[in-house]
Specification:
It contains nine helices and eight strands. By secondary structure, the chain is α/β, with parallel strands linked by helices. It has two domains: about 55 residues; about 180 residues, Rossmann fold (3-Layer(aba) Sandwich). Strands 1, 2, 3, 4, 7 and 8 form a six-stranded mixed β-sheet that branches. Strands 5-6 form a two-stranded antiparallel sheet. α1 runs antiparallel to α2 and α3 packs parallel to α8. The longest helix is centred in the first third of the chain and has 27 residues. The radius of gyration is 35 Å and the shape is globular.
């Protein structure tokens, strides 16, 4: 393609050269007045320049803007684990008190963090909750992975996330000192709908400790504002730490 354009360009240049010679021949014979000859040359030069510019632009390729399509994700509300063993990954956690309504705190908090990352197109929580009828919730408790995949298909998403809460204990005290620190345990499971594969999981299991108990965790101590956190604040920090390890969408699609 490039060779054919080069040949066309050389041919045009030759034609312009011979046309210029013909004009000079007639001018020398006195058949073209000087003023007219000058104007013809100027017009010819401008026309040739324009033509060469247009021909040259044919070699410029303008990349087409392609909008990347993010994979869609539905995040199920946090589920309360009945036992110390995760129903999906069989991981073992220390169970503890779960403050009533704590899953309603964690679900929108996690949804906001996932939206901020921008890896997925997140389905609104209202749409997810709309399909969680009592029979569907019972199935989700009995067969969590299989039921979650079916819910994802009903919602027409590419991925679905299931989260289990094992412990949500509030601190007793203040940010300066506590009688009892906040304690939290949950895990996350990201399932790909097209084949039902778990492509990523994350876990957080921590009871906040003073820095004096473990100097090796000084970085973790300052990420926790160097103070005693509420359970929600601890959950927020834990989610941030987990989501730093979340792969890019392409890796999750191909894994």
């Amino acid at each position: 393609m490039r060779n054919s354009k080069s040949k066309a360009l050389n041919s045009k240049q030759k034609n312009l050269f011979f046309e210029h010679l013909n004009l000079e021949f007639w001018y020398c014979l006195g058949l073209i007045p000087t003023g007219c000859f000058t104007r013809i040359l100027k017009l010819g030069f401008l026309g040739a320049s324009l033509m060469l510019l247009l021909l040259g632009m044919g070699n410029i390729s303008i990349p087409e803007a392609r909008a990347e399509t993010k994979p869609s994700l539905a995040i199920l509300p946090f589920l309360i684990a009945r036992e110390a063993v995760c129903p999906i990954c069989k991981g073992v956690y220390q169970r503890g008190e779960i403050l009533p309504g704590s899953q309603n705190t964690l679900t929108p908090l996690f949804q906001q963090k996932m939206e901020a990352i921008g890896t997925f197109k997140i389905l609104p929580l209202e749409k997810v909750e709309a399909v969680l009828t009592p029979p569907v919730k019972r199935q989700l408790e009995e067969k969590p992975a299989r039921s979650a995949i079916q819910i994802g298909k009903d919602l027409n998403v590419g991925f679905i996330l299931v989260a289990y809460l094992f412990r949500f204990e509030e601190r007793i005290g203040s940010s300066l000192g506590v009688e009892k620190p906040a304690s939290l345990a949950f895990d996350l499971h990201l399932l790909r709908l097209r084949d039902g594969v778990e492509v990523w999981k994350g876990k957080f299991d921590e009871t906040q400790r003073p820095l004096s108990e473990n100097l090796l965790k000084i970085g973790s101590f300052f990420r926790r504002k160097a103070s005693w956190l509420t359970a929600e604040e601890l959950a927020s920090v834990g989610m941030d730490e987990i989501l730093r390890r979340l792969p890019e969408a392409k890796e999750l699609e191909e894994k």
